[in-house]
Amino acid sequence: MAQPPYKRIALALLWCVAAPLLLLLVWVLILLPFTPGVADLKQARAAKASILVSADGKQLASFEEGLQERVSLAQISPHMIAALIATEDHRFKDHHGIDFRRTLASVFYTLGGDAQGGSTITQQLARNMFPEEVGRARNINRKLKEMITALKIESAYSKDEILEAYLNTVPFLYNTFGIEMAARTYFDTTAAKLDILESATLVGMLKGTNYYNPVTNPGRSVQRRNVVLSQMRKHGILDDKRYDSLRRQPLRVSFSRQAERNLTDTHFTAYVRKWLIDWADENDYDVERDGLVVHTTLDYALQEAAMKAVERQGNALQIIADVEWAQPDSGNSGSAGAYAGMHGSVTPFEYFWRSKGSLVNAFIRETREYKKAIDSGDTSAAALKRLKADRPFIARLRAAKTRLETGFVAMDPDTGHIKAWIGSRDFHKEQYDHVVQAARQPGSTFKPIVYGAALEKGFAPNRPYRDAVTNIKAGDGTIWRPTDMSGSSGNMMTMRDGLVFSKNTITAQVMQDVGLPGIIKLARDLGIRNSKLEPVPSLALGTSPVTLLEMVNAYSSIAAQGQYRKPVFVTSITDRSGKVVAQFSDPKSEQAMSAQNAADLIDMMRGVINRGTGTAIRYRFGINGDVAGKTGTTQNNTDGWFIMMHPKLVAGAWVGFNDNRVTMRSSYWGQGGHNAILVVGDFFKAAIGEGKVDAAAVFPGGRRPAPVPQGEVPGDIGEEAGEMQQEGVAPAPPPAPDPDDTEEGGQGPIDGEHADPQSGLPPLPQPMSPPAPPEPDSGGSQQQRE
């Protein structure tokens, strides 16, 4: 107050200006440590997606963030660069990351109601390179971070390097990033060949990629393109005559959505991806930028053999299911070729849909569409009627329910390394993984664990049992009666033959003598460590659901002379320069059962291949090595299993439908020894033929069997699920009549045609011309029965 009035006014004005500036400076200093540093900038500019590779170095998958292909500035059209600078930042070469004149002007126009952006190309690059660090909210905090990062970028890189980085990272919709993929997507050309109009169109999209999308909003796109052209005229790039000519030109888009090149389209790589993301988070790595190389255990050649086996045999089995469920008489042929010949003249699953009206209604009620209809106020009958009339919906439902699925996995018993992994017949159609996600009843493939527990208890393989139905009293007092569908002979039978011929009567008696605790303990020790094992008598017949990976792991433990090894799928991780950043040693083995008992169990399971339910391995596929295995079939032909042990490789397959209310129809093709065995046999035949599996290898103490000619199998050793009936409990009541199985509930004419009188669905489409017959399941006869 001692100062003269004019000085007091000047000081007050000075403080009004200085205080905000000082506050802004303090704010910037606080934000400075929270913005990317020079090292981060260099790493981001050299960003490279991490990849997964097989054990033999073949790329399996990448972790790219969308479709992107980096190009140098020399590979980008000069028209694109000129249009970009003229429109987005015409003083680009004169500032140092921030155009203060443009920033202040944008503030002025925005306050006046005309919102304008003031970001330079360098600031936009900062957002593109570091979206998380800079932030996405439209506020002063994000703007300051953006400016600070832009100044750092300008201090570290030349203008050309900044332009190149920007044009390679800018997003252009349809999961594409960078000018090269944008040129291919919208104009079917390359970045180097973009003309003035194409360049102006793409630059125009930068103001709002969706709003100015030339595919969906061509009118807006033309208007915005012409704005870009006018900016090029304003800054002397175009003369008036050229501008006037170009702005009258139509929008010439040649849209071609680029195929997704991300190779992570297998269940194995999806499984590893989830694991890697967790590992990267714990170890401070970015899988999309750090260029890691993840070395997996997968053998590329074996994976290819597995894929072909699943495709070939899965297609053949699908045709069989289609034909058997197409007509009232399912037929009973053991020839896949016979079904292929009939496939073109039938409507797949026609009889199934026509004869199971209540089940169809149940399927519909379980869909999201039905639940949505009920939530919107529809009655059950109205919702069913409307959805049954919805042809695309019914077609999708039918396809999903009647698609036969297959899971396959192979591992090295000596190391635990996963060598092949197929989670379904087609990852694009079915992402549900039947190797590690699906828990299904293993049926008779669980029986070797029962007999292994007996050997561990001191029982000899030739211990005799009578093939007869016996009563087994459970802990809760109920009585269980194990039976075989083929009946009981009443004769004495060894424990060995009980396993070879998959006798439920013998297995149940062995289970009773061994005790469930011992069986469950061995199952856990061998590798079934995640699935719940119900301590009930029927466990011995494989009624407790498990995953395919667990079962193959258990068989691998047997093949490794009783040594359990946790499955291994990644061996090491290296950085972009080849330096090892993580090494994963093979887990220590655990002795799950004695080596001698494992050898005896393997010998018992050799009999399954030589004279039991797995003889197709010898006679159909001509595999003469020292192998052992077991088939499995569950009630009503719901699940088919087969797992085979070779001294150096163990592989297993599961075959069935996702919904266990849909099954293989015939008892022949419903058996694991007639369906899943085809996948495993096909795989092993290819693996041996390519030299990936040594046909001469033998288990310790074993010997290679005499060659068996391919052809007709003498006799038929069939396997059916059998039953273990429980007494002392009330039988399940018959299903109640479906109140919606009436004309009022959705039956009757649909679109002028008559719906099926039992299912109420629209009539199935008529079959087209017959497809080419599938490849035979092997080089052997298709007429044989196991």
Automatic annotation (TrEMBL):
Catalytic activities: [GlcNAc-(1->4)-Mur2Ac(oyl-L-Ala-gamma-D-Glu-L-Lys-D-Ala-D-Ala)](n)-di-trans,octa-cis-undecaprenyl diphosphate + beta-D-GlcNAc-(1->4)-Mur2Ac(oyl-L-Ala-gamma-D-Glu-L-Lys-D-Ala-D-Ala)-di-trans,octa-cis-undecaprenyl diphosphate = [GlcNAc-(1->4)-Mur2Ac(oyl-L-Ala-gamma-D-Glu-L-Lys-D-Ala-D-Ala)](n+1)-di-trans,octa-cis-undecaprenyl diphosphate + di-trans,octa-cis-undecaprenyl diphosphate + H(+); Preferential cleavage: (Ac)2-L-Lys-D-Ala-|-D-Ala. Also transpeptidation of peptidyl-alanyl moieties that are N-acyl substituents of D-alanine
A Pfam short name: Transgly
Keywords: Carboxypeptidase, Cell membrane, Cell shape, Cell wall biogenesis/degradation, Glycosyltransferase, Hydrolase, Membrane, Multifunctional enzyme, Peptidoglycan synthesis, Protease, Transferase, Transmembrane, Transmembrane helix
Main location: membrane
UniProt entry tagged with the keyword Electron transport: no
Penicillin-binding protein transpeptidase domain: residues covered: 407-643
Cellular compartment(s): Cell membrane
Pathway the protein contributes to: Cell wall biogenesis; peptidoglycan biosynthesis
Compositionally biased region (Pro residues): 760-776
Region of interest (Disordered), ranges: 699-786
TM spans (from-to): 12-34
Biased composition (Low complexity): 777-786
Domain Glycosyl transferase family: from-to ranges: 57-232
Family: In the C-terminal section; belongs to the transpeptidase family. In the N-terminal section; belongs to the glycosyltransferase 51 family.
Protein name (Swiss-Prot/TrEMBL): Transglycosylase domain-containing protein
Native species: Massilia antarctica
